[in-house]
Amino acid sequence: MDQVNASVITEFVLLGLAQSLGMQFFLLFVFSLFYMGIILGNLFIVFTVIFDPHLHSPMYIFLANLSLIDLGLSSTTVPRMISDLFTDYKVISFQDCMIQMFFIHVTGGVEMVLLIAMAYDRYTAICKPLHYLTIMNSKTCTLLVIAAWVTGVIHAVSQFVFVINLPFCGPNNVGSFYCDLPRVIKLACMDTYRLEFVVTANSGFISMGTFFFLIISYIFILVTVQQHSSNDLSKAFFTLSAHITVVVMFFVPCMFLYVWPFPTRSLDNFFAIVDFVVTPVLNPVIYTLRNKDMKLAMRRLSRRVSSSRERT
DSSP secondary-structure letter at 201? Predict the structure, then answer.
């Protein structure tokens, strides 16, 4: 921490997403609308799972945690994106930049493990239905959720401990609208080649490996279903299509941002916005509109709210 205190840099400069006033108002409207959708959609899923006993199963417990993570991930960047739209000099303090990076990687690590847990849950339910309740019991579900949160913290801390002690004494322009490890590391007043490789391996290669592992897992599930009964293939594909969509939307931007960082500024911003804004607002839509149990639970919750209002 002494090195941090001795650093000349006390703040970092962020880049804006728009220059013209018309585009700034347009982005203000879009980001505000999306962020409101993120808050309402994800909290609605969390409360629906909590208050509906029919949804107290591993699949929906994972989904509720995923919704919390999506809300947290979006909240690390979107409010500042909105507030910076009309700010001429966009700066973020050193401490706020470090906090933002830390929570981005905590939430990203947790979501990665949750998606693996959800894939394992679907594999057990589809390929081993007779053993599902034995394998995916409450203890296993709790352990997987705890493992996801612990892994997220470890993933963030394993990179953060190196970055927090870097000397920053030169340029302070991050080159993006938010702080993230690859861009901030390049601003350090020392050779950071090895540290950049660690970040690429920790965030990029792990994301790529997990993505291909999940896609292969879902293909394996579909092939297994087809071998047993071709009539059930369409039903299994309908069930898994929501999971596959979420996996693609989460991991593809991560791979571009960390395996192939800084391709162009516009492309980098595009994938970051997909990760922080688009995916968190679409996940509730994907999981509710394509899930019969969630639809029924939403109706039950709506009727319960309506009846409570009538009583008052």
Answer: I
